[in-house]
Amino acid sequence: MIKSDTSTTGLLGPHTLVFDVINDEVVNQRPGAYALGYTDNRGRFLVTYVGSAMADLKSKLKQHIGTARQFKFRHYATDQAAFEKECELFHRFLPVGNFLHPERPKMSNWSCPHCQLQARRA
Ligand SMILES: [Zn+2]
Predict the structure, then answer these.
(1) Which of 2, 39, 49, 92 would be a feasible disulfide site paired with 97, CB 3.0-4.6 Å?
(2) What ranges do the domains of the chain cover?
(3) How much is the pTM?
(4) CA of 118 relative to ligand 1 center, distance in Å
């Protein structure tokens, strides 16, 4: 079962996952976290995939064009904050498109704040 988003995700959107919208909504060269999905006939955003990007969220979202109808996102000041948001979204929604726990970046010793296990090394 796909869990629906609520206002508590803290993400902006949903927006249509197309090139022009990403260009308009997402800031260049900034880290961030995102959720992909679609809005059902009751107006709920259903999360099918979550992720985060170090350094350049805009480029990463463009790689997902064609894989989902809509996205939500938020920029974060640091790469680690974006990663921790991805972990939070992963644990909350357990999206059908995420088979594995988010990977921490190489050269980091970050751990997931939401489970006892350290995040899988990239
Ligand atoms: Zn975790």
Answers:
(1) 49
(2) 7-121
(3) 0.88
(4) 7
